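Teaching assistant here, posting this on the class forum so everyone can see the example we discussed in section. The complex has two components, and the goal was to see what a joint structure prediction looks like when all of them are supplied at once.
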Amino acid sequence: MSAQSSSIAQRLDQLYEFDREPVRPDKLQGAWKFAALYAGEHVAATEFVIGAMFVIHGVAAKDLFWGLLLGNVLAVLSWAFIVAPIAVRTRLTLYWYLRKIAGPGLTFLYNVANAFLYAILAGAMISVSATAVGLAFDIKTPGLSDVLPTSVGWVVVTLFVGGVVTLFAILGFDKVSKFSSVSSPWLFAIFIAGALALLPDIGHVHSLSDFWTLAKTRIWTGVPEPGQEKYGFWHIAFFAWFCNLAMHVGLSDMAILRYARKWTYGFLSAFGMIPGHYIAWIASGIMVAAVGRKMDPGLMAYTAAGLAGALAVLVAGWTTSNPTMYRAGLALQVVTPNWARWKVTLVAGLVTSVVACFPVVFMRLLDFVALYGLVLMPIGAVVFAEHWILPRLHLQQYKAEKRHLFINWTALLTWVATLALVFALPIHLFFKWLPGYFIAIGLYVGLSFATARE
Amino acid sequence: MHVTKPMAVIVSLLSLLVILVLAALRCCGSVAFETYRLWTNIATLVWFASAPWWLWPRDQSPV
């Protein structure tokens, strides 16, 4: 290992030093904590955009309700059967487990990729918040097909919101996280209330049958907006499944589930999926239909619940972008030695705020979410194969740790080759990750077998 | 005024109930949209005044 690469590895290790050791039995947490955590984490600003986007993309009502059900069940099963068993067996974060498997060099690359993707995600959240602030100054939200900033007003408002979010992240990341816990139940109530209150604007509803008729004919009509791709049942099912791909199949939720007493706590992710990725998505679909299918989260929420609605969009965007910005800063800290945390957060915040000015980051949020999961998925596949398959084939585990490798080239090659192959696959972006997962497992096992023989 | 935790729990949950019930009544056409919006804003204030007394995380528990 060269002196420079060794130094990068040491700096990265220092950042994660506090959770280097496996979780001790006395630190394990009860089921209620996990249920509350998942419930709070998955009702966020993205929900205002995602549910509305399904309407814009012309999903039919039946496809939406059944597609979301299937996709969310598959997501919960992925938490329960993929990430939770590995988390409770190792009691480590993905960072430390990946370090044993792939070496500090590849772990560094993974962190940088994650930081880049986090910055874009945080940017999308700031854009969503900006639509609420823009209402007060009568600033027009960009259109569905806009890529670049559409007005000086939009840029000023977005940079202002980004600046405030960054300032709070510098002054008290922890306090914003705690505020997020307090606002989650209220946010969920605003989603439901906003949808209920706007239903009469779409049509008369006196029974469930009325609602279903309205849903089919006025909300999820099956007709996309001009220039938008039509989504069907499988698009919805796959989206709901891969929406948090990096967390379940990508294994980043090992950081949380390593505190679980039993692997079955993975099923508690349903407490996040049902309210956040089922009810809230349906609610935001109703809201966007009520405002004439205009993709403007601030306007949707303000129309639905007045100032409380606008506040909901602002708070949701702020509390979601806060930890995302923090994580991006954490990863950035590795390449900025001797920088104070505030300086790193400031740079991450500035980059994120500039990204937020480009409306494409939230107008194409569905595609970005798909890409985000896809890029990190092969690493989850590598860890899965290393944990479960290699020992059964009597292949050496934790090669990087045992041989003091800076990079496990087998893992890196698997990551790069899988991405190259899945991008070449002639299927929709939403469906690429599933064959990609099996390709990654096959490649890693095959390459491990080949290099073991050498 | 001394705010006890059980009192804060009851008040904050009631504020959420107000939001949801008013929205349901508005859906049925029993209350005007402006009435629903006004009470949603008031209930929001009540929520943020009462919920931190019992929902604000006290420690640095990782989960």
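For the discussion questions: Chain B touches chain A at residues 16, 19-20, 22-24, 26-29, 33, 36-38, 40-41, 43-44, 47-48, 51-52, 55-57, 60-63 (CB under 8 Å). The helical segments of chain B are 5-28, 33-50, 52-55. Think about how each of these relates to the inputs above.
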